[in-house]
Amino acid sequence: MTTDSLAEPQDDAGPRRLGSLRWRVSVAVPLVTIFIVAVVEWSLGGYELLHEGLARTGWLVLLLSAAQLLLIEVLMLRPLQRLAAGCEAMESAPVPLTPDAAMPASGLTAELDRIGHAMRRARGSLWQQDQDVRELKRELAQQRHLLQEAHAALEANQRELASLARVDTLTGIANQRAFDEALRREFKRAQRLRGLLSVAVLDLDQFKQFNQTHGSAAGDVALQRVASLLNDRFKRDTDLVARLGGEEFVALLPGFGMAEAQGVLETLREEVRALRLPDGHGDLTVSIGLAAFSPAHPYLSAQSLLQAADEALYIAKHAGRDRLSLAA
């Protein structure tokens, strides 16, 4: 076997290794790019955005991979190819015994410097991409936190609005909407259980004249005092007092028949008459209409029960005011 035959595989080893390196880079770069792009797309929009923009993601991966492969080819593989060719030439050429033998070493050093510089640039680019991804994740986390805070504030506002929609702003007791819902609910329960349910409609007597005489501010105070008195009188969990509007109030009394409700309301009427307002303003009186549901005296609907109480109030007003009238 000759010396040339032994050297031939060594001559082919460099190109084979370089080709293998180029093939591995060609495979690794797209895979790394796919991973980075998928992480960024997932961070931005989750699985839906990644799935919907699959074609766009594919083109982005293709373009980034091609750009990185071109950069690696120009800055790394071609210099390595030239370096390998130079090394092979140096190995195959006879080593001169003159001082000029130091020249190839300087060229090799320069080539190695260029390769090192290219590798540092590549590492710097990858580090910058990693920093950009980290910064993007931090921004997304901050935006997510702000979104959660905004959502919590919105829910609190919605709860507050829902509460305001069921509360009278002047007196702080329930409004007509809350009363209508409670009346339907309690009427169905009384029908189902064959129980008792009383409804009383109360109207302050000559309240418009009171406002004209003492002013609307005093009228507002009077309404607030009456609402507070109703709350103090009807304290059961099932009781509900509400302001229907203007100077008209209503009391819903589950479990009370006509006789029980009549006694409580007569006491309330006397308490309203005895109520003293600030600055020595005049006395107030109230007219009351009362209707009661019972198995012996049923009503067809909640609305008919409320209408009966209204009609009883009308009778009390036209009978001289400051009195309690019972529905027939």
Structure commentary:
The structure is a single chain. Strands 2-3-1-4-5 form a five-stranded mixed sheet, with helices on both faces. A hairpin with a 2-residue loop joins strand 2 and strand 3 (248-254). With 328 residues, it is of the alpha+beta class. It is built from eight helices and five strands; from the N terminus they run ααααβααββαβαβ. Residues 1-9 and 97-103 have low confidence and may be disordered. The chain folds into two domains: 3-91 and 103-162, no CATH class; 176-326, Alpha-Beta Plaits (2-Layer Sandwich), CATH 3.30.70.270.
Summarize the structure in short.
The protein has about 325 residues and is of the alpha+beta class. The protein is about 70% helix and about 10% strand.
Q: Which terms summarize this structure?
A:
8 helices; 328 residues; single chain; rod-shaped; disordered N terminus; 10% strand; Alpha-Beta Plaits; 5 strands; alpha+beta; five-stranded mixed beta sheet
The CATH class of the largest domain turns out to be: Alpha Beta
Number of strands: 5
Largest sheet: 5 strands, mixed
How would you describe the shape?
A: rod-shaped
Strand content: 5-15%
**Overall structural domain count:** 2
Low-confidence stretches: 1-9, 97-103
* Element string (H = helix, E = strand): HHHHEHHEEHEHE
| Rg | 46 Å
- Would you give the CATH topology of the largest domain? Alpha-Beta Plaits
Q: How far apart, in Å, are the first and last alpha carbons?
A: 132 Å
Q: What is the assigned CATH homologous superfamily of the largest domain? A: Reverse transcriptase/Diguanylate cyclase domain
Count of DSSP H/I helices: 8
The structure class reads alpha+beta
